Amino acid sequence: MTRFNRRTVGPIVLVVVGALLAYFLVPRFGTHINIGYFLLQSVPLLLTAVGQTLVIITAGIDLSVGACVTLAGVIASLVMDPANGGSVLLALAACVGAAVAVGLVNGLLIVRFNLPPFLATLGMTFFLAGINLYLRPVPGGHIARSFQDAAATRWDYIPATSVLTLLLLSLIAVYVDRSRFGLRLRAVGWNERSARLAGVSIGEIKVTAYIGSALLASAAGLFIASRTGSGDPLVGNAYQLSSISAAVLGGVDLFGGRGTVWGAIAGALVLAMIGNVLNLLGVVAYWQWIVQGLILLLAVALYAVDFGHRRSAQPA
Amino acid sequence: MTASDNFGASRVEQSARDRHGTLDVHEAVPPAASERTAAGSPLNANIAAGDVPLLELRDITKAFGATLALREINLKLDPGRFHALLGENGAGKSTLIKILAGIHRQSHGEVLFEGGRIDAPTPAMLRSLGLHIVHQDSSILPGLTIAQNFALGQEPTGALGFIRRRSVREELAARAKRFRVQFDPDVPAERLKIGDRKILEILKVLDEKQKLLVLDEPTASFTTEETRRLLAILSELKAHGTAILYVTHRLEEIEGMVDRVTVLRDGAKVGELANAEAAQERVVSLMVGRDLGKMYPHPAAPLGETLMSAIAIRRSGVFDDVTLTVRRGEIVALVGLAGHGSFEVARSLAGLPPPDAGEIRVDGKPIRLRSLRDALASGIGFLAEDRADTILRVRTVRENLALGALEMWSRMGFVDTRREADEANRLIKALSVRCRSPTALAESLSGGNQQKLALGRWLAAERRVLVLLDPTAGIDVGARAEIYKHLRNFADTGRGVIIATSDLAEALGLGDTIVAFYRGRQAATFTRVNRSEEDVLAAITGQRTERGAA
């Protein structure tokens, strides 16, 4: 039931135009090696951006995404360690359990105790940062070879994990577009009071959104761990804010209600593409930040600025 | 979510009723809902006897802090009856509806539906009982499409929680057809007119189990045509046995349809009348009470010379060719439906934003009005309609009173705190602001007393003209009368007041001059001699268009 407008079409145009520009203007962008690399690089950002989007649509924000990414890697590096039994399944279960707990606590702090989402998830960030450093003060631990290999599977030059991630996120996008949960998610973000009057249980929807965000962050953390082969207590920090940037780039409105998961997917791809292209061009890191900042502001202006839109003051 | 939340299931229950009579319907009440009623199931053996009212309110009392919003309200409503709940703004009508809806909880008393007690209901639970409430505030979300709004909260879902969109559309089309209205399911709701939004809300709640429809001031911002359409739908419903509880302060619009009328005043039930047609005058006198004269003080002195005037002011696309004057001692009331210009003109007089064209004069001299700052410098004081915009909630009473006059009370940029305290104490006394102390936080005051602070700010600042938007919205009757008195005093001491109000009774009681707006233009201007509510209403709904110049 998505309507077509600047916010929904814009991000897709950005991806397509960006990819074409990069393909034709940037040497080596279109090589198999780089495309495979780009697809792998973008996985954690895709996952966290979509999780973040679920929360932002409810007019909330999840700052604990980064810490949650880290937590999954730290847990995996401990549980998969042969010294601790080395079970991959147990590690996955532990990551899922931890994510559900994090999302549940975030959601309950916001719904039951009326904390602003910013504060609740900021508190959670510090709490998890402490736990992460306590469990794994320095990078290390062990990620099972079998898990690493599974995550590194390639079909020709295309990484299987990237394809599966895009598939999963597309399913989530369709679900949010067309399910009862999706409709209620948007209703809560548009206007909580009206949604409540219509019979929507606000708490249920919000808690689910925060759990979804934590689960996707956890998946991102597991993926990163599979690539590095170890747990790192700081690895997720970048995703705290880049997940928000990707969502905003994808047309998701920080005030809630407006925005789609498709947009977030597109936003994450654009953001990852910018990084990739600038790397290929050998641009120094600080320039990359400046370019990202400018593009983000430009995108927001594109979505939010009212280009001479006529407000009809004359009631018909 | 319970099964009864989707359209498919409600049809199943309907057929159960057809086959087995009314009692079976209660078995369809989902357990989650009946568990929440204090007395267990709403099912009551007395229903079969037929002498239990559909809805019964017993001694409903509601206190907000020290104020009693409702005092021992009793009301009975039988199936298929159209019951009107009348009262002026602030009489307690909406509070009563909010108790029914579970938004507020009564301090005393109980609500019985078909003989079963309802306690702390949720929207889903009420819906499953067949009790539907359409609130004064719209529950329509402008950002969603009509179909999405229609489905929200009662989505028919298939596997995995996907919405069955076709069934949403079919149900919407079926209900629209029944009431001879049309809705395009894919249009965003923001494009609907206010009247159509309300009708969509009603369609939404009309599943086949409904027994009681409660409407809280549904026609507050309707055109006459919209009101007519709504009432056509209601009479169709009534004919099919749905009871209607209709909250309004305009009896005339439901004349001929209504079976019983309950009148509230100041939170108490002051009368219940069997047939409204014969009782119009009595109802009005009950609603208003005998203190009408005290509520709205009359001017003490004849009007003086012109203080402020707006000549042919215009804001592109908002209002056009508006000419107004305020004389010494005069209260000018601007009235009109939302969006038709009355509030917009008032705001423009305070520079928010300034008019695009035309001239504004104060004391005969044209002023340059580019912003609120310029308006303030010309001796105009402004109060926005939302108290959250005027009152600093977490600052003290004293600080709030001082805001308008800080410059007058300052020396070399520092506030003279002793003077501030003295002036604040004087104002607290003059306005009879009820607060624990001058250093209490503004948020600890009642709405009426907060409004007095906002008003006091401009009294302290010695304004010549006050521009106020809905100055008594959401304020109890006692405080309203006091605010009217202060505004009258302000005018009587040789100054002028312009109020934009959405309360017609207020305009009629307080305004020495009433300017009615329709579609951004002055539709008519009335003075105190020969004007009636009907005339003003006709002017703001476009049934009377004479070019009025003050």
What report would you give on this structure?
The complex is a heterodimer of chains A (316) and B (550). By secondary structure, chain A is an all-alpha fold. Chain A has one domain: Orthogonal Bundle (ABC transporter involved in vitamin B12 uptake, BtuC). Chain A contains 13 helices and 2 strands; from the N terminus they run ααααααββααααααα. Chain A has helices at residues 6-25, 32-57, 65-79, 88-111, 117-135, 145-151, 160-178, 180-190, 192-197, 202-228, 237-249, 261-280, 285-304; strands spanning 154-155, 158-159. A two-stranded antiparallel ribbon of chain A has the order 1-2. In chain A, a hairpin with a 2-residue loop joins strand 1 and strand 2. Chain B is α/β, with parallel strands linked by helices. Chain B folds into 2 domains: 3-290, P-loop containing nucleotide triphosphate hydrolases (Rossmann fold); 294-540, P-loop containing nucleotide triphosphate hydrolases (Rossmann fold, 3-Layer(aba) Sandwich), CATH 3.40.50. A 6-stranded mixed beta sheet of chain B has the order 6-7-8-3-9-10, with helices on both faces. A 6-stranded mixed beta sheet of chain B has the order 16-19-20-13-21-22, sandwiched between helices. Chain B has a 4-stranded antiparallel beta sheet with strand order 2-1-4-5, with helices on one face. In chain B, helix 16 crosses helix 17 and helix 17 runs parallel beside helix 18. Chain B is globular. Chain A binds chain B through residues 1, 3, 175, 178-181, 183-184, 186-187, 190-191, 193-200, 257-258, 310-316, and chain B through 1, 5, 122-124, 127, 135, 137-145, 147-149, 151-155, 157, 160-163, 165, 186, 188, 193, 204, 317-318, 337-340, 344, 519-520.
